[in-house]
Batch of 4 targets.
Target 1
Amino acid sequence: QFKKKYGNRVRYFTSCMNKPWEYYAIEEYLIKFKLLKTIWAIISSFDIRGGFILDISFMLKTINKVLKTGKYKNKRIGKICFGGSPLLMNNMLENRLIKENIRIELGERGFVGTGGGGWEGVKGFVKMNAVNKINFISYFEKVFDINVDNIRDIYAFTESPVLFGGHWSDKYQDFIYHCPDYARIIIRDLDTLEPLKSGIGLLEVITPYGVNGCVNQAVIVDDIVELISLNKCHECEYKGGTFRVLGRLKDSQGRGCSSIIDWIH
């Protein structure tokens, strides 16, 4: 339906990833603003705190309704997907669901799609505790009975339109990412910037697509990655470059008003 409607007008760029949800799913956002909690946070901490909460109670109520009736907003629901920032997901799991020993068996009906980075504790202007990826995986398995094969991550950065999908690797105990066929990657030596055939270096992404608005056909970022393969993922047989993200060349700093946000439940 999406392809039929838009046809050749669909271009490769990162924001396309959200379009299918508008047609095939019902989205609910858990971030809510609460004035009274903001006032209390200011009084109790003697500091300005963001008045945002993650409405986890609403999420749990909605999931239980879907499991009981098979429907939500008069639409039949077959799958439930948790999507968004790993920082906020981890906050939800550690500070509410795990502590309260909440268990909901979704099994094969449940999926997780984290996106956009933030594992190291910094996402945009938001600063939180770093996320332990191994614990993160185990939390979803424990709370929602979601198999690791149904937990995926994406990697992208603002300066490029390319979106890299990734899956969990038992071998590396990390997410490994695949280069899509509309882009190419070069891993460059940290000192000389010469291309590497293996090992650890800086990531360069090359693509001719989705770059009409600015000159970003080839971009080197300060993310340090390990090149796993230049041509094929040896775990899932995906054809293309495969890598994992190890960190950044220098420490990331969250700046701006979002850095003072505390997430309250």
Note: The longest strand covers residues 218-229.
Target 2
Amino acid sequence: MALPTSEEDFNSILRRIEALVASSYSPDALALCDGLIAQEVTRRAGLRARADVYASMRLKDLQIVDLERLIALGDWEPADRFHLGIAQWRDGRTEAAALSFRRAVEIGEAAGFGYYTDASRMHLAGVLIQLGKKGEALAHCRLVADGYECHLPGGVRTKEQLM
């Protein structure tokens, strides 16, 4: 696959991947992702997209591997850590998920990016409850705005419900 020549071309490839996944043409979607991964400038986007394709195929291990590869390229995006934490939690890797959510909070706070900070705190609190660390979970919940709600495994939960 040739390197995208414009932002529009790049976005067109990403939309095509999404459309292929929605139509259950995962091998074609994976091929487009591989083309993006082959190019240094689009590698991060390709890994994100391929992780999403693997998630849609319920291939958790491959999804996690790609998200870990993405983070190895540079751990500065809270969304990457957040999505890795979700994948790890769904795969039963609660300790690893807790570490990923903690890192997402750190990165989000440093960047002043509240969306992933708050969502990561809520997910972290959920994982900590599962790990039996209720005091630590409560401390993280207190840092989230009252009434904040988030999609957690099992459904939408508010801060107050977690507390």
Note: The beta strands are 149-152, 155-158.
Target 3
Amino acid sequence: HRDITKGSWTTDGKINELDMNQFSDDTVWMVTNKGGWCFIPVRKGVYECHFGYTRQGLRRFAFNHTRQCFDIMQKRGAKTLVGMVASGNTLAKRFLEKIGCKSVDRKDGPFKFAGNKTDLEIYLWQS
């Protein structure tokens, strides 16, 4: 859904399209018709994460759904969840901080958000 990718950063003028078929069978998808999360195993207890919600899925729904997803991942043995968000995407950054994620680093690159050059911030959640 376009609302999910609307907040994404772009590289070389293109939004990073998510193709679910490119991921291994070990990837965990927790997606509803309002959006959700993807957890890609990196190594034991560590997952790379991606998320997105439609307009109808923002706020309370996204917060509650994310808490459920993180609880399930913790029960599955996740110790660290890591992801990147455009530094200019203040809504996403506030959301991640509200659910307990911490900004730990930045990645420079040819990224744009809302038409402006941006860095990517790396966020961690740890159980």
Note: Residues 48 and 82 are 5 Å apart (CA to CA).
Target 4
Amino acid sequence: MVKIQTRLGKTGAMLDNPKYQAELKAIGAKMQALDAKVKKALKWDDQGLRMWKLHMNNQKFKEIAADDEAIKQDIKKFVTSHPKINSELGALTKEI
């Protein structure tokens, strides 16, 4: 656990570099917007006897899935456009 904690600290310190902050904040803002969209689109129906039904409009689901895919592409673009980050994340996953 100490080894993992140390490694995550190193990775976190690398991502704290100001040259990455603008891109990471933009990705984070998109993630927060997606989270809010999901929470707004989910509908909980009381089925009685402490049972609930959760559902979402299919069109909203498609929008959310498209937004999620766009965020994944942004993350992939960020990682591939910064070789140091790419190698650090590769090393991190090998150790964990």
Note: Residues 79 and 86 are 5 Å apart (CA to CA).
